[in-house]
Structure formats: structure tokens, C-alpha cells
Protein 1
Amino acid sequence: MKLEVIALSLEDALAAEEGGADRIELIAAMEQGGLTPPIELAERVAARTKLDVQVMVRPHGRSFVYGEPELERMAEDIRAIRRLDKPGFVLGCLTPDKRVDSRALSRLLAEAGESGARVTFHRAIDEATDLEQAYCELGAFPAIRRVLTSGGAPAAPAGAALIRRLRQLEAAMPGTPAVMAGSGLTIETLPGFLIETGVREVHLGTGVRSLDGAGRSRVDPRKVAKVRELLDRMPTR
């Protein structure tokens, strides 16, 4: 099972690596659901960790509908991220009627390198009018390796039934993205959630963070290690 951890700093990334994470999602502004981090931070993290680093490409937290100026800014960010060693991208875009914006997505994936890119379609999918249809449509884009979802709910445990359905679609339709569950997952809720949904990839943020001596929230390698141990104990399905 794969474990992805949200990182907001180099220290977070190193703590995630120490705890046994497979991958990090590097972001800024966690309180807005994650925005594009400074490229200088991405460069430092990529140079210091051996983990798979997926960098958020999201210019603002207002919506997932983007006009031309925003798409050009995202394209510029992608071009900068591409200079990293083995870059990965986290992105997503919707039309005003909340369907996958295939034109905008194709443009961004072309900047990312198309088939050679490693892309996660983020929780924009949770705002789609038809989440299952949106998931199936993403299968047409080989660069999209996984979809991060809470099953359309505020937190993944509440969306478990739909996440299970997406996992069934993933198993039945070769070439569709891997389903990665995220939002509201904790060490305590994970065992039952994994059994109920059958997901093979999970994404944790606040569930593996603790306050340091100065009251700042940081990734706690001990919590990451507990999740890693839990995942390693789960039976393969």
C-alpha cells in the first residue's frame, strides 16, 4: 500500500521520509486546500529527499474553474517544476458546470510532458457533478496516474461507499487512474476504512501532524511510522 503525506516545508518532507512515507504532496496554504508552493522550496525538497515529490499546481483556492490568465500562470509553474529531478504534478480543472475541463487539462498535461508525466488529479473531482463519470473520463489521459478523492464528501470516511465504487471501476477498467483516498483520515479510522473501501493508496495531512514546542503544526515522523506499520499489516486484496 502507498502512503502519501502532505508537506509544507523541507522539514515536513524529511519527517515524512523518516516515518516511511512513499510520496509527498508539496503544497502551500494548507488552510485553502493547498496552493502552488514556491519553486525554491520544491527545489530544496527534491534535492534533499529520495521520496516521490508531487508538487501542487493551483493558483488560488476560490474554485477549480480557470480562465486564460490562470491557465497561463499554471503552465508557467509547470514549466518551472519540470526542471526538478523526476517531477510530479498535482492539478485539476473543471468547467463552470462542474465537469472535467478536458481542454484545459490537455493543455496543462502537454506542459507537464504528457505520457512521461506523473500527475495526480486532485480533489477537484469531489466537486464534479457526476464523480463516477469524471473518474472514467480521466482514464483517457495516460499521464494521470492517480485521483485523490474523499468520495465527494467533506471527509473520506463519509464518502467510503463511493470510494469503494471507484475502486471497483479501477479494477474493472484497465488504464484508469489509481484511486487514492484522502481528507479526514486518521490512524484510528484507517483500519476500518481500508477494509470497507479496498483502496491501495492513502493521503494524510492533519492525521500525521503534531504541534511542536512553539505551537507550530509539523509532520510527526512517529505518526507517519504508525500509519506505515498499519498499512504494512493490512492483507493484500
Note: The chain has eight helices and ten strands.
Protein 2
Amino acid sequence: MEISTISIFLLGIIPMLIIVASLRHKSRVKSEKRRPPGPRGLPFIGSLHHVLTSQPQAALRDLAKKHGPVMYLKLGQVDTVVISSPAAAREIICYGCHDIAFAPYGAYWLVLRKLCTIQLLNTSKVKQFASIRNRETMSLVKEIYSTSGKTVNLGSLLVSNISGFCAWDLFPSLQFLDVVTGTKRRLQRAHLQLEGVTDKIIAECEARRKERKAKNSEGQEVQGEDDLLSVLLRIHDEDEFEIPIKITTIKAIIQAQRQLHQPTIELMRNPDTMVKAQKEVRQAFDHKCPYGHESLMGELHYTRMVIKETLRLHPPLPLLLPCLCRETCDIGGFKVNKGTRVIVNAWAMARSSEYWDNAEEFKSERFKNSIADYTGTQFEYLPFGSGRRLCPGIGFALSTLELIVARLLYYFNWSLPHGMQPEELDMDTTVGATARRTNPLHLVASPYKVPIEH
């Protein structure tokens, strides 16, 4: 009788356990199906082998063609989702603080952004620093002019930047590797060298500020602030922000840099475009005072199209700065788990034939009647990001870039070193925090008929 009761109990409970296990398995399978597709990973490194190149944005674009515009990768120990479509990018950037919850911006980040948008890079400040842009770009022109038709390394004369890859970015539990391999030591050495330079720059600026204050106290009126650094040091002294602006913060801001020579390379690769842009600039600048050049930039419609097209093919941020998903959410119909890093591949969208005709070709004219601008509202074109992550220095960067390009076109006729053809110019870049040129850019600058004022 007892055996019969146990048998009946088991016959009843076993089917129930099977049903529960089956339902849990189906639920797990359904959940896994909702995770974005992606390439198979290897033990320990995940999908890292796919992207360890100087062109990770291109590698990710090629993977997205196979796996889709919302793609999952395990990069070392870090869960990562890469976005390669405007629709998914819009979902993140526009609705990130509502439907999709990402890691909140820290107070330090908010203060720095407020500092940039209100004190450093607002419209009035950009205009105020016109004299500095004029002085510095003319200094570049004079330096090139002094070469008298010799080959110059334009890349070394323009701005470059430094970035480093650390193992702990992708393997948080293996920070000791950067000590063993020497990466940390090399970065620290470079940092100390850069610190020495910025210390001297700050000291010189402080001396100028003291001299200006002394003259003002003696009744000699000296108005205005020389440069961005003067503004930063004034804010540091006045301590007007919720979080104090430290000297280390000032150093970090003045060390931020971007590459400026990509428009010149594209013009060398496209001689017809060079002729059109140069003609436009010289018609506008001829017989005009150099100090008035910046006020004439509004007349350079074609040159501005050249710059727009350059930034389409070579965005300063090929991969927009990553966000961290603060809680599990949906992106493009897929489940993205809490703690996942989300990266937007702006480079891939700007080169997609789905959104651009002849996407890989340099065609300035495509922007003639285009509504695409730099504000990040057209998500296939995000050279400076979008939303709350939009670069606050757009106005300052464009004013500088446009003036440099216009003056290089105006004051010089450019040619390639002897025997070199336009198609031989490589466009290789190395991507870290920003894109920078891999190989030096050597060109021959022959002065135009306009004399250079000394």
C-alpha cells in the first residue's frame, strides 16, 4: 500500500517537473533570442580578435553587414553592443533618458560641460577669440612660406594627439598586465612629459595675467582675456562652480586636440575639387586685409561643402564615446542587459550606401542642397556626436578649421612630391579616442603671388 502511494506521487510530480523545466527552457531560449546577434567569440578574449586593428570602425562595419545594425560582442570581459543604423542611434541618443536608461552623467562631467558651453565655447567667446585664430593661422602660413617650395610635413605642423590602449579597459580583472607589459609605465612617462609642457604654458599665461592686473591697477586700461587658458584660470581663481575647477582639470582641457589635415589630403586626391575651392577662396580674399578673412567665410560655400564632405568620410570620432546601460532595456527590438557598453559607429553610418549615393567617393556637391548639418539631427551624419553628448566645441572647431583650410588654399599652390600620384596618397588613420593619421603627410607648398606680412 505504501509503495503504491509513493509510485502514484512520483507519477504525478515527474510530469509537473518536466513541464516546469520545459517552460523555463523556452523562456531562457526566448530571452537569448532577443539578445542582439553577433560573431562567435573565443574563450577568454571573446570577439576581441575581430577588432584589434588600426581601423576598428571598419571591422565593426563589416561585422554589422553580416550580423545586423544592432550587434552584440563580448570584448574581453566587457559586454558590448555596437549600433550601425541611424534608427537605433536615434533611439539611444534621443530617448536615452526615458525608454533607455544609461549611466547618469556625473557631477564632474556636468560641471565641465557647463564650463565649456557657458564660459569657453559660447558664440560670443568664439567671436572674441577671432584675433587669436588670425594670429595662429598666419603663424602657420609663415612657417610654410619659409620652406620656399620645399617638401613640408604638413601633419607635423598641424595638430596631432595621443591616445593609449590599456588591457584593463577590456579585462578589468587583469590590471596587473599593464604593469607587466610596460604600457602603464610608457603612458605615465608620456603624461609627465606633457605635464611639463602644460606647466610652462600655464606659468606663462599666469605671468601675462599678473602683468595685465598690474597695469589695470596703475590706471592703464587693459581689456579682455587673451585666450581660453586665461578664461580657465580666471574661473579657477573665482571658484564660481559647484565643483572647484582644479589646475589638473585645466591641464586636461588644454591637452584636448584634433587632427586638421584631412581636408588637405582629400583636396590633393581630388584635383578638380581643389581647383574649384581655390578659385572660390582667392576670389573672396584677393585685395582684402588678412585680418578680415574670417568675416568672409560666409562667402565660401563650396569650401564649406568640402569640409562637410571631409568630416563625413573622416569624422573626428568614428566611434562615439560609449554609454553604459544602467538597467536592462530594449534597443532596436533586442534585449540589452544591464551593464552593457553601447557604442555608436558613426563612421559606418556615414559610409553606408543605404543613406548616401556613392558613399565611398569624395563628392562635395552632395551637400549643396542637403539638410545635413553638424548638430547631430541627421543620424547618418554625426561627425561631432549628438544629443547630450554633442561636442560643445563645434563652433570653435569649425571656425578654426575653416580659416586654416581657406588660408592654406589662398596662400599656396599645393603639389605632391616628385613622381607621386594623387591615388598614391593613403588615407590610413589609427583610431584611439579620436582618429589620427597613421603616416606622415608630405606636400610641396609653392607660395601664391600674395606677399606675406611679417
Note: Residues 97-103, 159-165, 176-180 have pLDDT under 50 and may be disordered.
